[in-house]
Design brief:
Layout (H helix, E strand, L loop, with lengths): L5 E6 L2 H9 L8 E6 L7 E6 L1 H4 L9 H7 L6 E4 L2 H16 L4 E5 L3 E5 L8 H18 L4 E6 L2 H8 L7 E3 L5 H5 L12 H9 L5 H6 L2 H8 L1 H11 L15 E12 L2 H22 L3 E10 L4 E12 L2 H18 L4 E9 L11 H6 L2
Parallel strand pairs: 2-4, 7-8
Antiparallel strand pairs: 1-6, 1-7, 2-3, 5-6, 9-12, 10-11, 10-12
Helix pairs in contact: 10-11, 12-13
The protein binds thymidine-5'-triphosphate and magnesium ion.
Length: 367
């Protein structure tokens, strides 16, 4: 399978850039946007600051009084958060960016993932050109800059977007992923906070490369299965998470009425096998594998019953889907005495497999 091409766009010093946008007199001065708690005049924390203020050590999260102190003697401007205004600007930008994506997923107010695999035919050079075009469009239509990461998956695109800021682009080709990640601190990985990175450092794991080379079985013993597997895959640059609009259908399903009410498994599977044929085509179109299979049956009394099974491995295999659906219906019929009127099949928990990379799931299978 060819590699995906994923972009993460992160708006630069976003709240402060919005303030510069509505008042150009702020440009060139240190600008601090603060969340004022109201207890005293200066109590509260910095939401964000522009790059001029960052040169003085003023960044998100530090107390406002400290920011004031660090900016003493400059022409710094302090402003309160105006969330509604930033939201309006964000909406406009997201609308522009959405037009450049095969699939689009906004994350928070100032970030979005774009899957551009199809429109670039998987070509990273084309993706670079596309990002320049996106930058020009956002700049001319809204007046704002952003930084971007281009990579084979969301995990790496996100980390790459942080490398060159503001108004930068960092591209990580599929063959460069491991080398790109290796020297970075483990804290760059989502889910590695202060506590976890301290624990890792005590184990001699400082960089993502150290983590990638660490015995995965040990990681599981130390952090539990879910986190251990995640750390191992993430450190190796493996991430199959798909770019998907929040609320977008995260399942594919078909439901239809049987020729006649029945308890005959052959009649039921004849119908569900047609449905599975269609589902399978849609899976191929969307280029996803599934990990969960569900069946639904509407009985003659019009009650709906469902059964679900989670597979060991994601798959898109037609035969597996047929077999699991059939087994679920066989079990289900054993639990009920009513006749079935309508039947349906559903697949969910989608992933995109990066077959060329070794994954911990296969590690488990092979011992
Ligand atoms: P970020 O993208 O983390 O920061 P940024 O856009 O200000 O700066 P950068 O150029 O490094 O991307 O966060 C987006 C917005 O979220 C930010 O403009 C303000 C808000 N925010 C807070 O209110 N508090 C915080 O601690 C952080 C990190 C962000
Ligand atoms: Mg940002």
């Amino acid at each position: 399978m060819q590699s995906r091409v994923i972009i993460l766009a992160d708006l630069d010093y976003f709240f402060a850039q919005c303030e510069e946008l509505r008042n150009s007199a702020l440009r060139g001065k240190p600008v601090v946007v603060g969340m004022y708690s109201g207890r005293t005049e200066d109590s509260g924390a910095v939401s964000t600051s522009n790059y001029e203020a960052r040169e003085h050590g003023v960044k998100s999260g530090i107390p406002l009084f400290l920011a004031k102190k660090r900016l003493e003697g400059t022409d710094a401007v302090f402003l309160p958060v105006d969330y509604d205004y930033y939201q309006q600007i964000s909406d406009k930008i997201m609308q522009v960016l959405r037009g450049y994506a095969d699939a689009f997923e906004q994350v928070g107010i100032d970030e979005a993932y774009l899957d551009v695999t199809m429109r670039t035919s998987g070509d990273f050079e084309a993706a670079k050109a596309l990002v320049q075009e996106m930058k020009r469009a956002v700049k001319s239509q809204v007046g704002v800059t952003f930084s971007a990461g281009i990579a084979p998956n969301k995990l790496v695109a996100k980390i790459a977007s942080d490398i060159q800021k503001p108004d930068g682009v960092t591209t990580v080709l599929p063959g460069e992923v491991k080398g790109f990640l290796a020297p970075l601190q483990v804290s760059r990985l989502l889910g590695v906070g202060k506590k976890t990175s301290a624990k890792m450092e005590a184990l001699g794991i400082k960089t993502i490369g150290d983590l990638a080379g660490y015995d995965p079985q040990r990681l599981i013993e130390l952090f539990g299965k879910t986190l251990g597997v995640y750390f191992h895959n993430a450190a190796n640059g493996v991430d199959n998470d798909i770019v998907q609009e929040a609320g977008e259908a995260e399942s594919i399903s078909r439901i239809s009425t049987l020729k006649e009410n029945t308890r005959d498994i052959a009649a039921i599977t004849e119908k569900t096998n047609q449905q599975i044929e269609e589902i399978s085509q849609e899976l191929a179109q969307r280029d996803v594998s599934f990990k969960q299979v569900g069946i639904i049956a509407i009985m003659t009394d019009l009650t709906a019953r469902s059964r679900m099974q989670t597979l060991e491995q994601p798959t898109r295999d037609l035969e597996t889907l047929r077999r699991v659906a059939r087994e679920l219906f066989e079990k289900f019929l054993g639990d009920s005495t009513l006749e079935v009127r309508r039947v349906g099949v559903k697949v969910s928990q989608f992933t995109k497999e990066e077959k060329q990379q070794r994954q911990l799931t296969s590690f488990f299978q092979n011992g």
